[in-house]
User: Fold these one by one.
Assistant:
Number 1:
Amino acid sequence: MLHTSNPIINHKAGWLNLASELQNVSKACKIMGVSRNTFYRYQELVETEGSEGLIHRERRVPNL
């Protein structure tokens, strides 16, 4: 179970916690209104980088 005080990742961490509490990824995704693919992407980020991996990072370089 993830515990965080960062409001940016609080929603995503809550979603991962909901899936672990329900023991059903599909049901948690349906409740939260997101795809299972996104869930597994977030779960992989948490496993590799910890809870800080859930912070949104811009992928593109700004076009000045």
Number 2:
Amino acid sequence: MQGFAGIILAVQILAALGMIGLILVQHGKGADMGAAFGGGASGSLFGASGSANFLSRSTAAMATVFFVATLALAYLGNARPTSVGSVLENTPAVAPAAVPSEPAQGADLIPTNK
């Protein structure tokens, strides 16, 4: 199970780095000089370039992979062992302490009700 979690963690890290790279490469909507002065096409619903291009679709795919890997890691991290029982049931038995064969010194000085 640890190997599987390691593979998922590697996929998650690669997806995060891929998302960072794709987001940094993308061209922002307000980056055009015309948009700074109130360009007409920049205020539309999807902007001037259409609904989605390759970079935005790739970013969405990387985000999906990242979230699926995160959910899988959360599930594996929260998985409980299948054996039913207490942790104390699996501890080794401890031998009782040895009782001394002769009484301690001064035991005859203790008053008893006889």
